[in-house]
Amino acid sequence: MCGIIGVAKRRGNAVAEVLEGLKRLEYRGYDSAGLSVLSGGAIATVKRGGRVSGLEEGAAALSGGVAIGHTRWATHGEPSDQNAHPHTSGAFSIVHNGIIENFAELKAELLADGAEFLSQTDSEVIVKLIDKYYKGDALSAVAKAVERLKGSYALAVLCRDFDGIIAVKYKSPVVVGFSESGVTLCSDVPALPAEVTSVCVPEDGDFAVITAQSARFYNSSLTPVMRVRRPVFLDQFNSGLGCYAHYMIKEIHETQRTVRETCEGFFRTVDVKRLSEYVRGADRIIMTGCGTAYNAGLAARRFFSDRCGVFCQVEIASELRYFPPRVTPATLVLAISQSGETADTVEAVQELKKAGARVVAVTNCGYSAITRVAHMVVPVCAGAEVCVAATKSYTGQLAALYLISKLSCDVFDAQSELLSVCPRIGEVVKGAERAKEIAALCAQSKAVFFLGRGIDYAVAVEASLKLKEVSYVFSDGYPAGELKHGTLALVDENTLSVFVICDEALAEKCLNAASQIASRKGKVAVITCLDGVAEKLKGTATVWKIPDSPLNLSPFSSAVALQLVAYHAAIILGRDPDKPRNLAKSVTVE
Ligand code: AGP
Fold first, then answer.
1. Of 158, 214, 255, 393, which has the maximum CB count within 10 A?
2. Pairing of strands 32-39, 42-49
3. Residues marked as catalytic
4. For 102-160, what is each residue's pLDDT tens digit?
5. What is the pTM (predicted TM-score) of this model?
6. How many C-beta neighbours within 10 Å does residue 326 have?
7. Rounded to an integer, what distance in angstroms lies between the CA atom of residue 425 and that of residue 546?
8. Please, are residues 191 and 25 in contact by the beta-carbon 8 Å criterion?
């Protein structure tokens, strides 16, 4: 939530690089954007409500070797020019990601001192405090100011008297990247420029003093500290849209590659022996995450219940954090997060780790906060996922969790079984016409219900999230058996019910439910990998027959089919599927 960037260049103009970085960071928020540049001992700022592209005209006249930028997801104050970052005061300009919980009390104190505020943001108090404490030493002033803050903050600070950037990290993410041309700080690794060859990840409480030549790190008492510099290869993260109209459809098409690379990454990087000891020795498995990551856990629970014989539960991280179950040193927590930065998930697993559980992070971002909490990391190798709606990362999470679940059995089988999903996914992505047909029904409906039983129910819940997120059509996902316990009352000719039917043992029951809906004039669509469903529902439902699949592997293709439906519904309704209103990709605040 909110992206920050700071660039200190040896030669040339940092403004263009900040603008490019902000475009890469836009998935973290896109309510407003701004940048400040230092040139000849003066700071110039341009900021606007709206997207980063709106800055380009104002920024064209600016240049300088050191600049900071921000793209915002509003927490305090509406998206507007005034509330956009950077915020400035006296010699300083700052960008902030996080939340200052005690801003009201600090603001009252600063107002009593005679300070004037131009925005409704919590962030503006930070720059006012820094300015208040400034006596010629910028680092000390920043340190004194952050001592007063409660909450979370990743800050980049420009001071007109210092040819560099001061950064601070506490609970919000920041990385520092190094390249031939200088030093870049950024909210996360995938948004760094491609020429960056190594990164340092500051710890909570760290300050970084960044110039075009170097970055020096200090702990919260301003004692110099060493932070490990690790190599990175960023080309894969910055591949752009290519021939696709949107990242959502591009990323859906990258699903097969994600499954293959996740499988390869698992056997290349994971200590399989140690992980199987965790799985086999577990007294129970708790999977946790938010949104789509939670939904991946819902589907994966079926993998574990079939194979491990160990009790497995799935919990929403924001709930788990405040109502933690009792754990033992043998409890295995699988923390699922694409970004690895979701505050609710990171905090929840921190609690469970403190209580003694083993934590394994299943994540797409190797340098993220969750990897620093976990005892072990299982990589999801989806590459950068730019679209706010998670698509290939969901399937990548399923792949990683499938492999983990198989550790109690014969893991070598698992690899070939898992890779067998790729040609089926390939067939599904060719089915655009079917997807468009069902998408058109979604777009015409006042509500869309997704139903399934067993593992199909888990897919239905994710399909519902995807549709509502990118098309803004109201939808709900629930177990098909619940229909007659209440939801049937909502069915009429303006609603669509989409069934996922891949479990042969439960198919008849779902078909009955579909008939009950059709006889009440509700529209029905079905995604199925079973033969004969279309014939049984002839004349009453739109049926998309996807390739046959073993039950536990069916979510890999049924979920992709439903992602395509959501994408096309968004396009029919004229939405931007990559940047849905009010959302951001990394939810780093509670
Ligand atoms: C899904 O399309 C959403 N973008 C959202 O639900 C997301 O999955 C959730 O915020 C969790 O994010 P994470 O995987 O980065 O932790």
1. 393
2. antiparallel
3. 2, 585
4. 999 999 999 999 999 999 999 999 999 999 999 999 999 999 999 999 999 999 999 99
5. 0.87
6. 9
7. 9
8. yes
Nearest partner of 190 among 236, 224, 158, judged by Cα: 236
- pLDDT band for position 22 (50/70/90)? very high
What does the mean pLDDT of the chain come to? 93
pLDDT at residue 366 in the model: 87
How far is the C-alpha of 364 from the C-alpha of 400, rounded, in Å?
10
What's the rounded Cα separation, in Å, for the pair 217 and 354?
Answer: 28
Neighbours of 124 (CB within 10 A): 28
Q: How many CB atoms lie within 10 A of CB 297?
A: 29
> Which residues, in sequence order, are CB contacts of 303 under 8 Å at separation 6+?
401, 402, 405, 406, 552
Model confidence band, residue 53 (pLDDT cutoffs 50, 70, 90): confident
Q: Is the pLDDT of residue 72 over 90?
A: no
Q: Dihedral, CA atoms, 345, 351, 352, 357, nearest 10 degrees? A: 130
Lookup result for tokens 């709900």:
476
| Cα distances (Å, whole numbers) of residue 512 to 176, 372, 395, 463 | 57, 49, 30, 21
pLDDT of 182: 97
Spatial distance between the Cα atoms of 317 and 345, rounded to a whole number of angstroms: 5
- Residues 171 and 173: their CA atoms lie apart, in Å, by 7
Ligand 1 pocket test: pick from 258, 339, 380 the residue with the most ligand atoms within 8 Å of its Cβ. 339
Q: How many CA atoms lie within 13 A of 494 on its CB side?
A: 6
Which amino acid is residue 272, in one-letter code? Answer: V
Ligand 1 pocket test, candidate residues 461, 587, 588, 589, most atoms within 8 A of CB: 587
For residue 294, the CA-to-ligand 1 centroid distance in Å is 8
Task: Give CA–CA dist 67/19, Å, rounded.
Answer: 10
Question: Would residue 114 be called left, alpha or beta, if left means φ above 0 and alpha means ψ between -120 and 50 degrees?
Answer: left
Confidence check: pLDDT of 307 > 60 = no
**Could you give the C-alpha distances from 540 to 384, 512, 537, in angstroms and in order?**
41, 12, 5
For the Cβ of 290 lying below 6 angstroms from any atom of ligand 1, the answer is: yes
Give the separation between CA 380 and CA 499, rounded to whole angstroms: 28
